[in-house]
TrEMBL record, chain A:
This is IrrE N-terminal-like domain-containing protein. It comes from the Bacteria.
Automatic annotation (TrEMBL), chain B:
This is Integral membrane protein. The chain crosses the membrane at residues 6-22, 34-53, 65-85, 97-114, 134-154, 166-186, 217-241. The keyword DNA-binding does not apply. Keywords: Membrane, Transmembrane, Transmembrane helix. It comes from the Bacteria. The keyword Transmembrane helix applies.
Length: 197, 358
């Protein structure tokens, strides 16, 4: 069971996503193209901060979307999902495993944000009654990503690929510009370096 | 000599252009650059003396036309690149294409409207006076190419000022290449004016690329210019290539650990072959190892040797196991952590290892 970090035993949820096994499965090749295009567009609108900080990037993403994203570290138990996205009326909640490295946490968060941006709805696997039994404290109609739905293999594939692409941009070398270089000429040079690099 | 120079520079530009095209396909950036380099390379190959001799058998001086058309397409690629750099690649796309098509049509029409084109090497020196269509040909060619070279020269100067390292060096080389291109274009205009003014112009055949000042301007300078453009546009990619090698080495070092984790926790594998470059492949491997470590109960606070022991034994860590973890978990530190675990994992005796789960 995942529990809120610092509050052992607090019910969070039973299962967030199915183990995304795609080995041997059929993945639509256009998914890759679509994921890459989405990430390129996203990074154009919401560039990764330098030096990289997931919190700072999410701040930018929030401003860009006009909607809050809250991050919540949760205690991880083996066999359970390491991350989750929960959609609320006025904000999105992204949960991630507490007991792992920062880079891995960023990767998990990037994966969940990819689900969020793609608006993956998953497939319905539980009845409302089952969902209510499993999570009595949560209103089932609010949940788009957990409990009542699990994401499909192709959703997981797309989200994971987007996470890898986002983290690739996040860990990329800084633009080879002089310290303090700014203004339109520096912006052009930065884009030129990105085109050439 | 001229053949070797033109084919050498041309094939080098095409090779770099194809590499750029593959990269552009993957990243979505640098399409204009790929167009420019491939077109420039083809322009040079089509203009080599031996190639022109073959092309002339189809139509007199055809090689000159084909080469100039390819150069115009290269100039178009430069304007696409400049738009991309300016962050306005999506704007005025049709206008750019329309201008190119118009220029290509004018060049082709004025070429075929010219009488008495020579066979073999396409030298127009004697024809300007009798064929005003060729004046339009040269003016459109130099104007279109000159504008594109001017645009990239301005951008490269700005990049030299703002940039550092290999990027700055590359931009400097690019700018010098632009200067050689300007000299070539200026030489063309001077040559045109001189031949129009001369009552009895004579075609000058160049025995070598730098045999005379005129030959240098007409043959040597464009070759040097393209060589410098290709080198200047390639230098900034060297640090990324170095990084790619380092990533590949790290991946190799992590391979035994990754193989063990994947065998034990097959569910951590999500992207089969989707990663297309070295960094994406490394991040995928690191993410899968980290997912496996999470499943095995190995946290970042565990020392590499303790983490390796847990992975080998298949049992969870004991409560008093080491706290000598790495505080800094940025990418480089994470690479170091996983490499240390991989090293300890290889050193850990394999006897008594748990069979893979599931």
């Amino acid at each position: 069971m995942l529990g809120v970090a610092g509050a052992p035993g607090t019910p969070w949820c039973d299962r967030l996503v199915l183990p995304p096994i795609v080995s041997g499965g059929v993945i639509d090749p256009s998914l890759r193209t679509r994921a890459r295009r989405r990430v390129r567009g996203l990074l154009r609108e919401v560039p990764p901060p330098r030096p990289w900080s997931m919190n700072d990037w999410i701040d930018r993403l929030e401003r860009h979307r006009g909607r809050d994203i809250d991050l919540l570290a949760v205690r991880y138990a083996p066999g359970r999902p390491s991350g989750a996205w929960q959609r609320h009326d006025s904000y999105d909640l992204v949960a991630y495993a507490a007991g792992t490295s920062t880079l891995h946490q960023d990767h998990i968060i990037a994966h969940e944000i990819a689900h969020l941006l793609c608006e993956h709805r998953g497939e319905c696997v539980l009845s409302e009654a089952e969902a209510a039994r499993l999570a009595p404290d949560l209103s089932a109609h609010l949940l788009s990503h957990l409990l009542t739905r699990v994401t499909t293999d192709s959703d997981e594939y797309e989200a994971e690929l987007m996470a890898v692409l986002l983290m690739s941009a996040a860990t990329a070398d800084e633009a080879p510009l002089r310290p303090g270089a700014s203004g339109p000429a520096a912006d052009r040079a930065r884009r030129f370096a990105s085109v050439l690099g | 000599m001229i053949d070797a120079l033109f084919f050498g520079v041309g094939l080098f530009a095409v090779a770099i252009g194809i590499w750029r095209a593959l990269r552009a396909r993957r990243t979505g950036a640098g399409r204009g650059l790929a167009i420019s380099l491939i077109a420039l390379g083809l322009a040079f190959c089509l203009l080599a003396d031996s190639a022109q001799a073959v092309e002339s058998e189809i139509y007199p001086s055809l090689g000159r036309l084909l080469s100039n058309l390819a150069t115009m397409i290269a100039a178009y690629g430069i304007s696409v690149t400049v738009a991309e750099i300016g962050g306005v690649a999506h704007r005025r796309r049709r206008t750019r294409l329309g201008v190119l098509l118009t220029a290509l049509v004018i060049l082709t029409a004025s070429f075929f409207a010219t009488r008495g084109l020579p066979t073999g090497v396409g030298l127009f020196d004697e024809l300007y006076r009798s064929n005003p269509t060729l004046i339009a040909y040269i003016v459109v060619y130099t104007g279109y190419l000159g504008f594109a070279v001017g645009e990239i020269a301005v951008v490269s100067v700005g990049a030299v000022r703002a940039g550092t390292g290999a990027f700055r060096a590359g931009m400097g080389v690019l700018f010098v290449g632009c200067l050689f291109a300007f000299a070539y274009l200026a030489g063309k205009i001077v040559d045109l004016v001189r031949n129009v003014a001369d009552a009895h112009p004579v075609a000058h055949v160049c025995p070598g690329a730098f045999a005379t000042p005129d030959c240098s301007l007409a043959v040597g300078f464009p070759a040097i210019s393209v060589l410098l453009l290709v080198v200047g546009l390639t230098l900034p990619a060297l640090p990324a290539a170095g990084r790619s090698v380092r990533d590949a080495r790290t991946r190799a070092a992590l391979r035994p650990l990754h193989a063990h984790v994947v065998a034990r926790y097959p569910e951590v594998v999500r992207l089969d072959g989707a990663a297309t470059n070295s960094r994406e492949r490394l991040l995928t491997v690191m993410s899968e190892i980290n997912d496996g470590l999470l499943l095995a109960g190995v946290g970042p606070q565990l020392s590499p040797s303790a983490a390796a022991r847990v992975l080998r034994s298949g049992e969870g860590p004991s409560r008093d196991e080491g706290e000598a973890g790495l505080a800094d978990t940025a990418f480089a530190a994470e690479v170091a952590r996983l490499r240390a675990i991989a090293q300890a994992f290889r050193a850990e005796p394999t006897t008594g290892a748990a069979s893979p789960a599931r």
